[in-house]
């Protein structure tokens, strides 16, 4: 960016401020108050004007910083940029792993030092973020690797949750037996969805998957005798640690704290649930990374790039699509089973279209096909929204501004760079 671009930067910053003012006036500048004559609209332009001014100044400052960085740093080649992004993704991945692994211990230590008293709150946020990370990695198989736009992924999430709740309640089986069954039921529904959409692409595929998600929700809402309808299902069995329940006392044997000689605390169950979803997410990630290098994973990527070329190579698009839907749905079912056992109560209101939209946003904003991008996007969209809950009505405004900033700054996602499954180096043979 040259020096003579200052006028253009100023114009863009002013335009950004004007757009921000137009968006914030209805939300921040108009307040309703009750008076003697009824409801009165109180016009307060100060907050809206201050927000617009901050956006304009921030846009101009960021433009100057970007210009200085572009002038100072030499232009990278495509290979150098790919290597830099790969190295950065590796560092971010290991840092995220270390942070997630040590989070409960760090929170207990800082609470013991009197720095805060919200260990339960932060662990709940961590569990929520990891749940969406697992859902994002599951949907990434369908959207990121196979290139199939799925707007009804929440249906598999719901099937897993209700499968676990109904099997555990009627047969009295433990969480560890019901978990794989919930994944299998969700995979079966993924195959059921895959058959009608074998010939569909793009917007038509999105509409059908959206309709499938709504059909599942409506069935759960109206099949009262089986699903409880709008009342939902309660008293869902909780998981235990190798047969040790997280209770103060048990007539069937020792409890968790008694076996390990600890004082009873309700936080033990929360920490166990945190590490449970952490391990499930790691299994999802390891499975995805491994299957991407197998023939079925390469077939997904070939289907994503060009379905006609995929057919010409002798690949069967029917089987390729069905495996993508089934495997992606299976991990959604696992996440649904965990959600049911964590909440202890589920209802159709937990599986609306907005959930599918949020999961898809995590995948798209993180960079379709990028595993680390899903982690970053989930932390920003889910964790950031929860951390800003104290802002009340401004929380969703901050959420929207964050999404717009990501789309403007990184239109292809935070980490859109994907390493090819097969690389060719000179005369060397192709290797995974």
Would you mind describing this structure in some detail?
- The protein is mainly alpha-helical and 432 residues long.
- It is 69% helix and 4% strand.
- It contains 16 helices and four strands.
- The strands form two sheets. It has a two-stranded antiparallel sheet with strand order 1-2. Strands 3-4 form a two-stranded antiparallel ribbon.
- It starts with 5 loop residues before the first helix and ends in a 23-residue tail after the last helix.
- Mean pLDDT is 79; it is low at 426-432.
Describe the structure concisely.
This protein is mainly alpha-helical.
In angstroms, what separates the terminal alpha carbons?
Answer: 39 Å
Point out poorly predicted stretches: 426-432
Describe the largest sheet.
Answer: 2 strands, antiparallel
Radius of gyration: 25 Å
User: How many domains?
Assistant: 2
Categorize the overall geometry.
Answer: globular
Return the average pLDDT rounded to an integer: 79
Strand content: under 5%
What is the string of SSEs from the N terminus onward? HEEHHHHHHHEHHHHHEHHH
**What structural class do helix, strand and pairing data support?**
mainly alpha
* Amount of helix: 55-70%
Strand order of the largest sheet: 1-2
Number of helices, where a helix is a run of at least 4 consecutive DSSP H or I residues: 16
Topology summary:
Blueprint: H1 6-29, E1 30-35, E2 38-43, H2 45-72, H3 78-112, H4 119-145, H5 154-171, H6 175-194, H7 202-222, H8 224-227, E3 233-234, H9 256-260, H10 267-292, H11 295-305, H12 307-312, H13 317-343, E4 345-346, H14 353-366, H15 371-387, H16 395-409
Antiparallel strand pairs: 1-2, 3-4
